[in-house]
Task: inverse folding
């Protein structure tokens, strides 16, 4: 084992350890330090000198020994040294009761005769403050606010030996902020509070109080926003700075008056047409009021007043949106209730009344603002006629004819009801329809029409309407005559009444038919000695015709639907009167007279043929009167004729080609027209 080491010195600098110094022992690799106090001891192995034994009790006397160690073993303990550990450090409790002071306190330390406490700024600026005391507390004053200080304290024993020291960093509480300013946001009902930062402050708290209501805002910056303020309120605003040492005193309160609340109990009255009265309740902290009135056409007016009412001009048919604001130095109150007031609609203008019939008038007018419904009222006659519609037109029907009416158009709105008294318009209905009592024929193409007059100061117009055209007659009395009506025509006769008010409906139509027209052309053709063919042009309006040939010797007549007929029993050589009756479908008759007709002369009797030679022939006949006759001979080789000398009843035809068959005709000579061919013929070979 190595040699026993010798302790040069042993001392205690810390309350829980003792440091030992010795000379090195050859061959020793480690050393064992032993601190013994009564039955308890603490051992520590170190490499070389000096060595420290830790884990000891403060202010306690220990016996210190050392042994050298090697692979060969341990040496004997060295002679001991007695060493007492120093006093324990006081455990400090530190606070900053004010912004310029720090209070230090501690518990009593065993075996301590006094204490030494020193204080200095942690940044090294300024001087060191030191105090010795036998008490367990003291206060440093006149310090810088919000500044970090380092505090060092130790205890000493009766011999003046200092013990362990205790170091503590403490910041003084901050000073109250200065230059506090309040910026109020009237639109959001919030305030931004700002101040100059104060030294050492870590956070700030803003207190906004009004009576029992307190609002707080905490921040680490130099401003803070306080929301949810109430209108018409007065607040005290103060700011307190904070750090880990504590809080400053609150700043002197700054007064904040918020904007006034929106006025309530707003009422609108139309004290007279065209004037609106707006009134409201007084508002706390409101210095004056502004009333805005905006019409639905975009036009806006306003009124400034310190009273609680305002007057405005208004127009009919407008909707006004009314809002009232209160003002003070803080600004404008929030938007309160926006009331709307609709004035009664205007009376309709551009009135027009047009009669669509004698008992119906169509009334139109220009639309007016604010009107949801229109009522048209016609007063007159035996009652009132009403019409309601949302359109700007109305038809008033079932009006009494020839009657004056006062027509008034009222406009209505759901919000305000009817318009004010609107002026009536005078309208007279058209005359009543006349009633035709009688239609009579006064003369050729003249028809008299009579009716029942039932209007005052009316002009009556009678119209005959047919395919042939229109014929009119007028009168202010009860009859008039239609002149020059065409024959053979059908008409519908009606009457109307006219006045300055208009025209009546036509009366019921009365049918009228004129007698058929006489045919313009009539032709008679002798077919045989006793039969004549008569034809005529169409007579307008005629359905059947009766044709008559009449002479003292007798009458020939035919009744037909056609425009021609054959008349028999005609006496030759007789003068006849010719008449025709045109008959309509309804039996109306027109008697027509034409130029007389003379039947042809009678054919000769007893015609005989005598051969004169191979190429001649003599024709004999017996004449009934002094009629001139003519003889015609017709054959394939030629036609021949002869006329007898005056007073003779025969004539000769010569130079007739032989070998032919001829037809011989003896007929009376006519003054005009074709030769008669219906007399009996003879054959001559």
Result:
């Amino acid at each position: 084992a190595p040699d026993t080491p010798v302790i040069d010195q042993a001392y205690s600098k810390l309350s829980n350890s003792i440091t030992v110094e010795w000379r090195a022992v050859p061959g020793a690799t480690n050393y064992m330090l032993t601190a013994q106090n009564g039955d308890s001891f603490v051992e520590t192995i170190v490499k070389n000198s000096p060595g420290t034994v830790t884990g000891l009790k403060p202010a306690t006397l220990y016996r210190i020994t050392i042994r050298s160690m090697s692979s060969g073993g341990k040496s004997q303990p060295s002679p001991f040294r007695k060493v007492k550990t120093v006093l324990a450090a006081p455990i400090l409790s530190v606070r900053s009761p004010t912004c310029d002071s720090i209070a230090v306190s501690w518990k009593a330390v065993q075996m301590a005769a006094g204490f030494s406490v020193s204080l200095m700024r942690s940044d090294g600026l300024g001087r060191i403050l030191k105090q010795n005391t036998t008490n367990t507390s003291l206060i440093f004053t006149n310090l810088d606010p919000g500044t970090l200080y380092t505090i060092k304290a130790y205890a000493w024993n009766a011999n003046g030996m200092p013990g362990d020291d205790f170091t503590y960093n403490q910041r003084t509480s901050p000073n109250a902020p200065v230059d506090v300013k309040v910026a109020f946001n009237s639109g959001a009902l919030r305030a931004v509070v700002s101040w100059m930062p104060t030294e050492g402050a870590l956070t700030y708290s803003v207190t906004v109080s009004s009576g029992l209501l307190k609002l707080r805002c905490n921040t680490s910056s130099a401003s803070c926003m306080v929301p949810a303020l109430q209108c018409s309120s007065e607040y005290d605003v103060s700011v307190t700075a904070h750090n880990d040492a504590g809080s400053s005193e609150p700043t002197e309160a700054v007064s904040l008056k918020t904007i006034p609340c929106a006025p309530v109990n707003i009422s609108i009255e139309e004290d007279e047409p065209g004037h609106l009265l707006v009134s409201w309740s007084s508002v706390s902290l409101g210095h004056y009021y502004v009333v805005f009135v905006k019409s639905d056409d975009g036009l806006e007016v306003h009124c400034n007043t310190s009273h609680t009412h305002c007057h405005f001009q208004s127009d009919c048919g407008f909707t006004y949106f009314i809002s009232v604001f209160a003002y003070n130095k803080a600004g404008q109150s929030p938007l309160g209730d926006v009331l709307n007031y609709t004035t009664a609609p205007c009376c309709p203008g551009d009135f027009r009344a047009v009669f669509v019939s004698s008992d119906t008038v169509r009334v139109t007018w220009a639309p007016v603002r604010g009107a949801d419904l229109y009522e048209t009222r016609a007063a007159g006659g035996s009652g009132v006629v009403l019409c309601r519609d949302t359109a700007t037109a109305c038809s008033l029907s079932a009006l009494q004819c020839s009657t004056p009416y006062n027509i008034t158009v009222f406009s209505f709105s759901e919000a305000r009801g009817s318009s004010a008294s609107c002026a009536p318009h005078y309208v007279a209905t058209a005359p009543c329809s006349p009633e035709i009592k009688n239609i009579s024929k006064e003369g050729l193409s003249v028809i008299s029409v009579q009716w029942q007059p039932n209007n005052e100061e009316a002009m009556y117009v009678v119209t005959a309407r047919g395919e042939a055209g229109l014929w009119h007659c007028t009168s202010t009395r009860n009859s008039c005559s239609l002149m020059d009506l065409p024959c053979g025509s059908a008409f519908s006769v009606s009457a109307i009444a006219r006045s300055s008010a208009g025209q009546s409906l036509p009366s019921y139509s009365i049918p009228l038919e004129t007698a058929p027209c006489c045919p313009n052309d009539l032709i008679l053709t002798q077919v045989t000695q006793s039969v004549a063919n008569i034809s005529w042009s169409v007579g307008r309006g005629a359905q059947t015709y009766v044709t008559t040939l009449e002479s003292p010797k007798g009458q020939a007549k035919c009744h037909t639907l056609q425009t021609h007929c054959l008349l028999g029993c005609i006496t030759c050589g007789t003068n006849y009167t010719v008449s025709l009756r045109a008959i309509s479908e309804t039996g109306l008759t027109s008697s027509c007279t034409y130029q007389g007709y003379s039947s042809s002369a009678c054919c000769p009797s007893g015609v005989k043929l005598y051969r004169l030679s191979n190429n001649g022939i003599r024709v004999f006949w017996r004449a009934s009167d002094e009629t001139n006759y003519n003889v015609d001979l017709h054959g394939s080789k030629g036609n021949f004729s002869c006329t007898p000398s005056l007073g003779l009843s025969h004539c000769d035809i010569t130079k007739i080609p032989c070998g032919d068959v001829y037809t011989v005709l003896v007929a009376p000579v006519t003054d005009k027209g074709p030769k008669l061919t219906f007399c009996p013929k003879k054959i001559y070979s």
About this structure: The CA atoms of residues 577 and 596 lie 5 Å apart. Residues 435-514 form a domain with the Immunoglobulin-like fold (CATH 2.60.40.10). The chain has no helices and 61 strands. The two ends are 215 Å apart (CA to CA).
